[in-house]
UniProtKB/TrEMBL annotation, chain A:
GO terms for biological process: L-arginine biosynthetic process via ornithine. It comes from Pyrus ussuriensis x Pyrus communis. Its EC number is 4.3.2.1. CDD domains: Argininosuccinate_lyase. It comes from the Eukaryota. Pathway: Amino-acid biosynthesis; L-arginine biosynthesis; L-arginine from L-ornithine and carbamoyl phosphate: step 3/3. Belongs to the lyase 1 family. Argininosuccinate lyase subfamily. This is argininosuccinate lyase. One of its GO terms (molecular function) is argininosuccinate lyase activity. Residues 68-362 form the Fumarate lyase N-terminal domain.
UniProtKB/TrEMBL annotation, chain B:
Its EC number is 4.3.2.1. Residues 426-493 form the Argininosuccinate lyase C-terminal domain. It comes from Pyrus ussuriensis x Pyrus communis. Pathway: Amino-acid biosynthesis; L-arginine biosynthesis; L-arginine from L-ornithine and carbamoyl phosphate: step 3/3. The keyword Nucleotide-binding does not apply. GO terms for cellular component: cytosol. It holds the Pfam family Lyase_1. This is argininosuccinate lyase. Residues 68-362 form the Fumarate lyase N-terminal domain. The keyword Lipoprotein does not apply. The lineage of its organism: Eukaryota, Viridiplantae, Streptophyta, Embryophyta, Tracheophyta. One of its GO terms (biological process) is L-arginine biosynthetic process via ornithine.
Length: 523, 523
């Protein structure tokens, strides 16, 4: 019984704890394998469900719950092709939660008896227990998670189970399950985003005062504080979390009671189920409730943008770990070797972070393509919405966690960085600012410093190695005080604008995050 | 001088007005052709810019504004390949707005004189006038919109223009422009979304009481009020607008003053420029400010989801306009004929709405792919972010507008719809609810009605044609009162749950939208 996708997801709830040993990349097995397997007959497992023990003969097919008007059963190929139980069983917890809320409402409204409700609740709890202990038999001939659970409930408690589907369709049921599942997934991803932010801020705290080259076009640009650079990623992640929260607010409306598409004439109370499941309110239009998947597209978009951000962090650290940069050394705990080259120590986790962003983007494109041009209301195509979501969530959780672990396990090579700083004329813009302060228009300053840089290039020296006379030969405005603006330490000290790399500015950014993320600075 | 992109965008701002004749699909010429042209040298146009009149000789290249340290100029192929003026000139208005705010701030901070500021403002206003009257010469050798405007300003006002770029880089400048542009685009799209919602609600109001078949799996499911169906699209659009507004809130922070990547040591006031440009606040981290494009990805995601929604509306109406459905007739104003088949009247606009969704998704995928794995901070790759955005905005505005016009120009064929209703046993679920009300568990009811439907199929009749005896032969619980639940009109009347298709429920939905969209019901 492959509950792996679920297991990974459930684990994520405890991610503030420091034991993340299941997150070695090898374990991040693609959940899509599951869908490939779905075209093969699933192996029958030992049957424990009491009332079921008679019907294990795979040849004698059980009648479908919707079989009233049908005379023939579907072919095996159709059954295998259309089943979803191999992946949608991941929804079992939320399906049971929804069914319990529905049963309570039906009882309150007099549509079933209190006894019915109680035996339904008891039966569902027993089924949940069996699923979690691995004793439950998931049957392909029962199509999906909803039918599997309902049929098992009937096996367990008999007649009352048949009343559970009153004023409900699988169309609104699955949407309820899926919204609840994604709501939990968003919370889990939120926890992981915060965890990565904390790791990055802590890394920044450990590296106070370190100056690194800032790049544009991957060419040396200006000197920046390493803290400033690390906090840029923290900013990105904050917006990622914001997108997920907006998505959560928008999706948190309850489709249950929309039934097949048109609602029902039975006296149900949609507000009661909505409240019980902690939705904001029931959805206003039943046709909209069962046919749209925009909340899925929005969720996968948010994940895709986060993934792209993480791919950029991955690229940064892979670059920085190269011999040519040599700015960071990952610890052995987050590196791997080569099977042939004994000297290799590769930053694989961050390469995979960069690489796995492709899957997350792919999952989004799958959903967009899936939904294009679908007429109202529910169409079976929409069954294909689950696996991309499961894959996206599993992948993004892994990417976030591994990035955080990597952040906890890299050392910045201060000496190497220090030695590299003189190259690249990082102080040239500061020198231009010096001229502006002397009253020269910026474009003219830019031109003058450009000529000074050309002189350095021809002499193979740094700006601060030019004599005052050499500088004066370029423009007479240069004076002795120019040396206060040259060299990376001086250059960094001169930054003062809001959000800039000046020490005071970066310190106040750091304070902002330490407070916001509730980090104990002593640790 | 191709200002088409801008023209389409600007005209969209006045979309409350009823004259939309520029939005016939034919006029939606593909934006992308502009970018193809960028590889051909742009035709030089008559030069009007006073100080420039001498330098029209195309062979003698002007020195670049960043040319200080360079000895050779770039090859023609590189210049053509890297230029962006052919498309980024669409940002001129926002570039000028940003430059004016920047100049005011520089003057207030004593970095330029008040006289400098005034002549910069005057010069920029003149340039804006020249651009809008088509008299401005956009020069490929001046690379982009920023350099074109700044160089033209220098030609016009001389020395003060050289001070404008003080404490600013093109990196923060272009992002300021782009955020301002997208902010306006969001407002324009918001107006169009509301306009389409408005058109759909009016269409609903014109069709009170019309019952249509509701479909799932494109099979007849339950009878629904046409109003209910139309309002489902209105719900989708409301969430689309919400996503755009969330995006607007998140992007409305000011990057200006982040400069190249590290900020500046000059005493600028970033809060002043941020306020002047109606941003919420300056961005907190200068490296983040110039390197990220998540606001673009988020915007294009929101557009893509809207486009998918519109593709579904397109599919619905194309289906409904077919001979086989025959539920709607588009007026001649929104239809086209065939060049060979005289009888044809095609619903092309909605086919193109369905089709153009592909471009909008493509634009999103372009941005995601573009940003993947980019190291900090600015990289020239990012120049490729503009055309997909311009394309996405132009396409989505066209899709929204044409959908609204289509909604205003279709007639529902009530008789044809009415005649079609008996087929498909739309009342079967209502009949199952009848049995539930008699105390039969839902699963058993489902089975009983399934057998009744099978009997109808064998007799080629409808459920209401079965006699009480025939029904009783299936299950003795049937009684004479069953006929109150049969037939589509009876069936629709029985719906009562919140959000359902019952007349009272749909009327209250309609009221919600009439109030929210401030529609005058009398019109």
């Amino acid at each position: 019984m492959n509950m792996e996708s679920l297991a990974v997801f459930n684990n994520s709830f405890s991610l503030s704890s420091p034991s993340h040993d299941h997150f070695i990349p090898k374990n991040l097995r693609p959940s899509r394998m599951v869908s490939l397997q779905s075209h093969r007959q699933m192996p029958k497992l030992e049957v424990r469900c009491a009332a079921l023990t008679q019907s294990t003969d795979p040849k004698s097919k059980e009648a479908k719950l919707w079989g009233g008007r049908f005379e023939e059963s579907v072919t095996d190929a159709v059954e295998r092709f259309t089943e979803s139980i191999s992946f949608d069983k991941a929804l079992y917890k939320h399906d049971i939660m929804g069914s319990k809320a529905h049963a309570s409402m039906l009882a309150k409204q007099g549509l079933i008896t209190v006894n019915d409700r109680d035996s339904i609740h008891e039966g569902l709890s027993e089924i949940e227990r069996r699923i979690e202990s691995g004793e439950f038999e998931w049957r392909t001939d029962r199509e999906d998670v909803h039918m599997n659970i309902e049929a098992a409930l009937t096996d367990l408690i008999g007649e009352p189970a048949k009343k559970l589907h009153t004023a409900r369709s699988r169309n609104d049921q699955v949407m309820t399950d899926f919204r609840l599942w994604i709501r939990d997934a968003i919370d889990a991803i939120g926890v992981k985003i915060k965890y990565l932010q904390v790791s990055l801020v802590k890394l920044a705290i450990k590296n106070e005062g370190v100056i690194v080259p800032g790049y544009t076009h991957l060419q040396r640009a200006q000197p920046v504080l390493l803290q400033h650079l690390l906090l840029a990623f923290v900013e990105q992640l904050e917006r990622d979390a914001g997108r997920l929260l907006d998505c959560r607010v928008r999706l948190n409306f309850c489709p249950l009671g929309a039934c097949a598409l048109a609602g029902t004439g039975l006296p149900i109370d949609r507000f009661m189920t909505s409240d019980a499941l902690e939705f904001t309110a029931p959805m206003r239009n039943s046709i909209d409730a069962v046919s749209d998947r925009d909340f899925v597209m929005e969720f996968l978009s948010a994940n895709a943008i986060t993934a792209i951000h993480l791919s950029r962090l991955g690229e940064e650290w892979v670059l920085w770990a190269s011999e040519e940069f040599g700015f960071v050394t990952p610890s052995d705990k987050v590196s791997t070797g080569s099977s042939i080259m004994p000297q290799k120590k590769n930053p694989d986790p961050m390469e995979l972070v960069r690489g796995k962003s492709a899957r997350v983007v792919g999952d989004l494109v799958t959903l967009l393509t899936l939904c294009k041009g679908l007429p109202l209301a529910y169409n079976r195509d929409l069954q294909e919405d689950k696996e991309p979501v499961f894959d996206s969530v599993k992948t993004i959780l892994g990417m976030l966690e591994v990035s955080a672990e990597f952040a906890q396990n890299i050392t910045f090579n201060r000496e190497r960085i220090q030695k590299s700083l003189p190259a690249g004329h990082l102080d040239a813009t500061t020198l231009a600012d010096y001229l502006v302060k002397k009253g020269i228009p910026f474009r003219t300053s830019h031109d003058i410093v450009g000529r000074a840089v050309a002189l350095c290039v021809s002499k193979s020296c740094e700006l601060q190695a030019l004599s005052v006379d050499e500088l004066k030969s370029i423009d007479p405005v240069f004076e002795k005080d120019v040396y206060e603006f040259l060299g990376v330490e001086n250059a960094v000290k001169k930054f003062s604008s809001y959000g800039s790399t000046g020490s005071a500015c970066v310190a106040s950014q750091l304070d902002h995050w330490v407070t916001k993320l509730e980090i104990n600075k002593g640790v």
